[in-house]
Every structure is written in C-alpha cells, then in structure tokens.
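Retro notes
What went well: the complex prediction finally ran end to end.
Inputs used:
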Amino acid sequence: MERPGPPPIRVALTNSAGRGVFATRRIASGDLMHTASPVVCYPSLATLHSVCYFCLRRLPNATAAPTASYCSDECMEHAEAFHEVEAKADWLAHDEHCRTQGLKYPLLVKRLACMVISGNASADCLDILQPAPLSSGMISEMERGFDLLRDAFIKADIGDEQIAFLNKQWYIGLLARIRINAFRVELAGGSYEDLLSLAAASVATEASVGNAVYMLPSFYNHDCDPNAHIIWLENASARLKALRDIDPGEELRICYIDASLDRDARRAILFEGFGFHCNCGRCLSGD
Ligand SMILES: C[S@@+](CC[C@H](N)C(=O)[O-])C[C@H]1O[C@@H](n2cnc3c(N)ncnc32)[C@H](O)[C@@H]1O
C-alpha cells in the first residue's frame, strides 16, 4: 500500500559521491518510498508504435500508423502542445541518424526541445542534474545530432525567438546530463504485490519500452549491493522501493547496472558509462 504524507527521504551531500538520497526515518523492506513522473520520456524506436507516445504504457493493439498513438484522452491532452510543435517538422533525417547510429538520447532532447518551444518545460529544467564528463570525441559526435535537430525546426519555420535556447552549448549540456541520469524504462508486468514479494524485481531486457529522465530519482547514487530499487509497472511513472530495512540517516542507493556481473565488468561499465570509480562496499571488499 502506498504511504500517505511526504516521502521518507531527503537529498543531501555524501562524503564521496556528490549529492545522494538519505532516509529521514526507518523504512521497512519492501516499502514503496515514493513515485516519480518523468520530466521527459520517449519510446525506444523499436516500440514507437506499440506504446503510448506520452506515458509509454503498452497499447493493446500495436499500430503501424506513422502518427503518435496514446493510451488515453488524458495522455493525448498532456502531449497536445508539444506534439503540435513536433508535427510541424520533418524528422526523417534526424530519426534516421538516431536509428543508424543506435542513439536513444537525442530523441529525449528532441522531445524536450518540443516541450520548451510549446511552453511545456523550461530550457533549464535539467540544469540541476550532474553532467557526464565528455571527451572532445564525444562532443564532435553529438554535433551532427544538434545540426539535424536545429535544421528540422528551422525548416519547419519555427520562429527564431522560439528556438533561441537551442544552441550547441544547450544541446551538449543536456546530453551530458541525460547520459548520466536517464533510466531505461522496463515494464515489469504483474501486480505490485507480486513485485513486493521479490527481493529484487528482475525484468527481461525486452521489457524495455523507452527512456526517461526524472528529478528525484536522479539523485540516487549507485551501489553494487543496493538497498533500494526503481520499478515501473504500467508506464513511465517510476516507483522507488526499499529492498531491505533501512535506518534513519542511511543513504539509499540503487544499482545502475546488472549487479550479477563480476567486479571488473561492473567497474568498467560504471566508468565508461557514468564516468566514476565505484566506491560501494561491495567493490571495496573486492567482491
Ligand atoms: C545519477 S548521479 C547521482 C547523483 C549525483 N551524486 C549528484 O550529485 O547529482 C550519478 C553520479 O553520482 C556519482 N556516483 C554515484 N554512485 C557512485 C558510487 N557508487 N561511487 C562513486 N560515485 C558515485 C558519480 O559521479 C555518478 O556519475
């Protein structure tokens, strides 16, 4: 059962991993600590026509329609303003670039840019999140995506003032933040009660329906032996649950990767993907 009242957590500085999320009171194993709606989300290209274009809920009937499909009138209304902006432009070149290069994050930037233009989001809404360190090679690879995004809006006659925020610095800064903070949304299926009875909800990779960035979940640090877990049941709305009994003041950490990998593999993925040397107890113990 979801608990009423404020979530039992706060964001504060850790000793060695920047900001983190801490318990403000005792939390019991299996408790749902809080939920979070995405600031921005986007279906993966493979599920584009089989999930709701707004909330990523699976649609009962997959369509081959080139237009966006929604699971409800409510989702369609939420998406109306940014989808109207998106529908003005031709995304063929941009989306083909993402498809051929296997890129998913520029699609989140495209959605956010449409939200900013339509007045659904502010251009600086993700500035508070930690950016990934980027090499000059990574930055030059991002430039093509920036050109394609900007070109699409310019060709669609979106006014200069409306896209004044859309410069290279904004685009690269946003991708740097998305790189560290985006979650792959994997719908678990089954009921919430089923999931609570599992020590850790493990979900198949093919359950992935898209990617999303949240505010509060972005402050959870990583641990290879986590005490918290993020799950998705029916759509991109995230649920943070405790995997163990947690004491007041204890830091809550989730696992960003497959915890069953060996130590070297975990550390390599965390360094290459997120740019840090993991300082969790399991890594430090050599496990
Ligand atoms: C999603 S953010 C988590 C919040 C972040 N600490 C902040 O201040 O915004 C991920 C970043 O936190 C830091 N971090 C997370 N888990 C860590 C760990 N186990 N060891 C060292 N640094 C970690 C790394 O800098 C990583 O890139």
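What we learned: The chain has a mean pLDDT of 92.
What to try next: split runs per interface for comparison.
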